[in-house]
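Usage example:
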Amino acid sequence: MSVSEPLLRTEGLTRHFRVGGLVSRQMLHAVDDVSLEIGRGEIVALVGESGSGKSTIARLLAKVYEPTGGEIHFEGRPVSSFRSRRDRLAYSSNVPMVFQDPYSSITPAYRVDHGVARALKLHRRDIGRGERRREIERVFDSVGLAPARASARKFPHELSGGQRQRVGFAQALAFQPKLIIADEPVSMLDVSIRIGILNLMLDLREREGVSFLYITHDVASARYVADRVLVMYAGHLVEEGPTEEVLQRPKHPYTQLLLSAVPDPRAEMNVVETVAGEPPKVVDPQPGCRFRERCPLAIARCGVETPLLRALGPAHRAACHVA
Amino acid sequence: MTTVTVEGHPGSEGPPVAEARRGFGIDLVRAIVRNKKALVGVALLVFFLVLALFPGQIAPDDGQAEIFQPGLGASWHHWFGTTAYGQDVLSQLIWGTRQSIVIAFAVGGLATAIAVIVGVSAAYLGGVADGVLSLVTDVILVIPIFPLIIVIAAYKKSAGLFTLIIVLGALGWSYGARQLRSQTLSLRTRDFLESARVRGERKLYIIVYEIIPTMTSLIVASFLGAALYAVLFAAGLQFIGLGDPNSQSWGTMLYWAENNEALGANMVLWAIMPGVCVALLGAAFALLNYAFDEISNPALRLRRLDKPPAPDRRDAAPLAPSSPENILEVRGLTVAYTSDDGPVIAVDGVDLEVARGEFLGIVGESGCGKSTLLYSITRLLGPPFSGEIVGGEVIFNGREIATLGERQLRHIRWREFSVVMQSAMNALNPVLTIEAQMRDACKAHSTMSSKEIADRSREVLRLVSIDPIHLKSYPHQLSGGMRQRAMIAMALLFTPDLVIMDEPTSALDVVAQRSLMAQIKELQRRLGFAVIFVTHDMSLVRHFSDRVLVMYAAQVSELGRTRQVFEKPLHPYTRALLDAYPSIHGPKVALRGIPGAPPNLGAPPAGCRFAPRCVHATARCQIAPSLLDVDGELVRCVLYEDAEVPAAAEARA
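Running the assembly step on the lines above writes:
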């Protein structure tokens, strides 16, 4: 493995779904040709609206879905070469996922330490029974569920949404992961407790050296935690770069729209004209920019040629003919 | 029979729906003791179980010996008389219990086991497996069971106990299997199963240890249903002579009684009592089934408050609104829910005025009583929001609506005020077009002609910039933002004076959210209705509301003009809420949010309710602060009790 090899790298990652009736051959292009990198100890935010394909990417990386095309390289090894159950288990313990809905991501029939206990049993066979209890308490402690012993023995309905989401992180942490995929982990929580979860991510990166792929539609929270930000629109990666750089100098018109809509109770209302409409469902697309219908800057070329990511600044790339 | 909600209650307020597991162990015992149906059911079942286990000790004799005078009526020696063969009816009944119990439990167990295996596997495996298993289930479901069993029993000459159990078990599982299949289907996409898959669990593990335990209450219901069915069917079969005529069972008793024309002779009880026993045992299972459903699904429990309600101000002479400018006046409104641990005051003495054409934002965390306040103003409290207004008054357009009857309410609901709910997907009927739903609303609340309705429907859709072509659309054909706008269009059908919105944008993405908020504001300016906008997200009301009400733990903690509240928040809670937002502007700063969670309203902290989470809390906060008027803004905090307190100035800085 070369030194410059990132922790995880995708190459032309693509996932299509068949839509319509039984005989339909229409394909929904949920993710098209996405190449991204996540470094060691890095927090990368993947930003976009619902339907942009960001949750599909999460599930591709977590191996819930198989890609239609492209490849995921983990620590330099192609993930498609992991065939044995052992290899696959090893990968899933390196790259666990935290889900969006804390009300449905914990089995209601068990105490909340169930997921952690199972993870230890499946992935860390070296740990004995007595030690397992201690390890459970350690992970509950490190996600800020105090007192750890008592919290671990509660049932999900006894915990608040924020506490449940911390249980989600405890489950991920039990794997001793290298990369946690956090799929909108705060969007269903009250604003007042979101920061707590974001701080937890920063804290875990600090203490455990874990990388994060933080998936969100909230650019402000992405800025709060992420080193780099990736912007998705309709299955395409449309812009990427260091967080501050992208936020200060957004190149893609979609990123500019997204930034203008960010809610901020302390800021004056910005007067950017919002473009009506929502991301399209991309079914059997023709070449061309997928944002052109909503884009105030669209030119003729946008209708015939799909823009590719190109460098527009230091480590800053955008897929736009006009920018 | 039963529908069991395993669904949580994401993001909403009000009493949480219990999870499937809730109510086991001690909780279950407590729940049974509290539930009358459960208590009667358990008592009946225990009674029959004791009879079945110890007939030798309880019955006067073995019920078989033909040693008494035949055809006796009821007497002290023979409570239920004797049979035509000179046997004691009571003894026969007691000895016959055993078979019914065995059949009930064996068939219940067998049928439930098959139902679980078939139903869960079909749903979880999907594809061909689901196709085949569902087909078998449906075929069994439509087989006329009784004639089939008659054929089988006739073929076997007489059906012994074992044959009965196998046949009833093999035919009685399909109903339960279908229910379990559909429940599993709805579970299949739940994140905890995906989480188990991501963890690397095998399919079998997921089915046995993740899915099945989650459906405990449905499985119990399926067992009780099958047991009930088995008792009735077995008795029926034996009654028509298809059982073993020498066996001791209630059905066989009925068979012999019928053959001897017991009803016509003096042996009425010989014919009636077995039927009564069948009915009672059946009732036991049915009652338990209902009770279990209620225990696992508290929303079905309709209880009144057992505590005498707080002093009732409703009897007082109606006060005229202090100002005709106000569309809504709420005074001292107090709303309580019942819970297993006593009443929960979810809205505690709230005073509130909304002027005509005003935009009022109500903000606060989940569980602070915002939604309850809104539901009580609109009189929509009812299951599962089984709260009750226990004090105060709500005056809308000069009328006290806390005491209005349903018919009068219907007159003003939708016409004078309307409500836009949080999730349009749930609030819109998925099987009706937008047009049909608008028509229904118009018909229910007015006498408009079809043409007027059609015109008005098109008009309101245009108001929210939806092409009227979508009148023919079903909700799922619209995007999230369009559905939410369609909801708003429906709320505007009658040009109401007040539109109440409960987090109408929180299910939307930021861009759609921003444009919807702008649209609501624009409509409000143009049409002049007042808005009450409930949200946990302060940033939403920042640019749109005239005044903001901050609620915490059922009480008003701050109420003031929007600009004032955002630029100079008085209450530490308001400040903490504002400081919970990361910003995309200015330098990046570390934030802490608000540690902890809002208190349990069943037992709120004495004194200031925010004190346990407040950075400014002092000993003075142990006394409950009252709502103070500070330069025209209302705030509930001791920091402002007298201007000389240096802490106040410090905190404001």
